[in-house]
Amino acid sequence: MSQPIAISPDRLLPADPGTRRIARDLLQRVQDLPIISPHGHVDAAVIEHNTPFPDPAALLVSPDHYVTRLIHSSGVPMDRMRASKVAEPDSRDVWHQFCKAWPLFDGTASGYWLRTQFSSVFGLETEISAETADASYDAISAKLAEPGFRPRQLFKDFNIDVLATTDDPLDTLASHEALAQDATFHGRVLPTFRPDAYLNIDSKDWSENVDRLIATAGDGGTGYGAYITALENRRRYFVERGAVSADHGVRTPATLKLDAADAARLFERARSGQATAQDRNDFEAHMLYQMARMSVEDGLVMTIHPGSYRNHHEPTFNTFGADTGHDIPFAVNYTEALRPVLQDFGTINDFHLVLFTMDETVFSRELAPLAGFYPSVYLGAPWWFLDAPDAMLRFRSAVTETAGFSRSSGFIDDTRAFCSIPARHDASRRIESAFLARLVAEHRISEERAHELIVDLVDDSPRRVFKL
Which one, of 86, 107, 247, lies nearest residue 165 by Cα? Predict the structure, then answer.
């Protein structure tokens, strides 16, 4: 039997009536503020060309590793949900698998975001289930076919002010330039410099990537010197086209300061295929230090996303590729790892270093104390497995007593799923309202001050931290 979608206006707000009243008022204060998304993975070309969205399964299920990983854990083969290197599943069958598995998402962040999208973005009135699979597929398909349901109109409808993408250093950024020059498009779509494939020796095709990098931007030079020059030149290219940040998806946040001669020797060993595991670790740590040095010089905000064991299940990676749900968090150390960078750049004006984590144990032990001393360090919003209601509350509780509110980055949606952006930001605003309401109810801050803080967290912080 079908049931109506239950979307309460008080979702995620405190259960206590008095505290909930305070949270409602705080949420109302920021509910209509524009969305600022300074880190995400939406393709700028989709917005430039106003590309129609694909079918419901290809839009909402197959590319979302949050969704496919949980269904896979219940015993559904991955090839029933995602394309492999040899076959592509039937979209309606994918949707049936998803609807059958929908009860698995009770209590999860994915379930919350998707249910909110189904109601507020796609206009579904009935909860999805195995029985309603075809009806919901057809209803969403009809919505996707509407002339106004395109990226540019939704950019406006979602009230997005700034949307940052994630881009290869050799990308031409043609779509970003086209959008910046398009008088009919209102909003900012900013590129982000993401050099991982050029810094990590273990990255696929690292040597070939370096060849292309040096040939494109090395000013005619060769070797390590030309490699550094090329990275500096491409960062400048990004800055000239609106970039405000450089993002680093590193294995660990380790940094190491080497002299040029030692770094060149490591570089050449790597190029010849003779680098040891220690060489690889040292070179990546040195290059993360170099990225910090370059951020000091060119002004790009430096964001670090460490702590993920990428492609944990090799058979799945070999068949389905990266970003298919088997990246698993591990513990990381920030205090020692970042000391070389913070010794040299931690107190330099206008250097902004935003630290993200998937390791909750470092919230109060390392990240909050670092941000509570170094003017350069900011606390990245809970990311990946932690961008969930309870985890966001734990983050705010763990860091605020040491670092306060001013050291926060603002919410980061970190999503490829364009239609999920408003649901994710709405969830963050509700969690911030709930946390501040508790402080007011406990007489730890005034209600007037809470109203100032909620605006700062939602709007002022991301603009300040990312220099928008």
Answer: 247
CA distance 215 to 280: 23
Q: Which regions of 228-281 does DSSP assign to beta strands (E)?
A: 245-248
The fraction of the chain above a pLDDT of 70, given in percent, is 100
Contacts 24+ apart (CB under 8 A), 123-127: 124/5, 125/4, 125/5, 126/2, 126/3, 126/4, 126/5, 127/2, 127/3, 127/4, 127/5, 127/6, 127/102
Which run of H or of E encompasses 377?
Answer: strand 377-379
- Dihedral angle computed from the Cα positions of residues 247, 248, 254 and 255, in that order, rounded to the nearest 10 degrees: -60
Where are the domains positioned within the chain? 17-51+151-465, 53-149
Residue 164's pLDDT is 98
CB 387 within 8 A of CB 109: yes
* Measured distance CA(62)–CA(43) in Å, rounded: 17
Are 379 and 403 in contact, with CB atoms under 8 Å apart? yes
Cα(188)–Cα(115) distance, integer angstroms: 28
Answer yes or no: are the C-beta atoms of 126 and 136 closer than 8 Å.
yes
CB-based contacts of 423: which residues, under 8 Å, 6+ apart? 112, 113, 114, 116, 117, 120, 121
**Angle, nearest 10°, between helix axes 133-145 and 91-101?**
120
The pTM of this model reads: 0.96
Taking each continuous run of H as one helix and of E as one strand, the counts in the chain are 22, 10
Chain-centre distance for alpha carbon 305 = 9
Largest CA distance in the chain: 71
Which phi and psi (to 5°) does residue 353 adopt? -120, 110
Label the pairing between strands 328-329 and 308-309: antiparallel
Helix (H), strand (E) at residue 190: strand 188-190
Predicted local distance difference test score (pLDDT) of residue 5? 86
Mention the CATH class of domain 53-149.
mainly alpha
- Strands 35-37 and 192-193, sheet pairing: unpaired
**What CA–CA distances, in Å, run from 4 to 7, 127, 129, 457?**
9, 5, 11, 34
Q: Are strands 188-190 and 160-164 parallel, antiparallel or unpaired?
A: parallel
Which residue type, as a one-letter code, is found at position 300? L
CATH 3.30.420.40 fits 17-51+151-465, yes or no: no
Instruction: Tell me the three state secondary structure of residue 37.
Output: strand
The residue ranges of the chain whose pLDDT is under 50 are none
pLDDT at 246: 98
- In this prediction, residue 2 carries a pLDDT of 67
Of 217, 235, 360, 231, residue with least CA distance to 299: 235
Cα–Cα dist 192/212, whole Å: 19
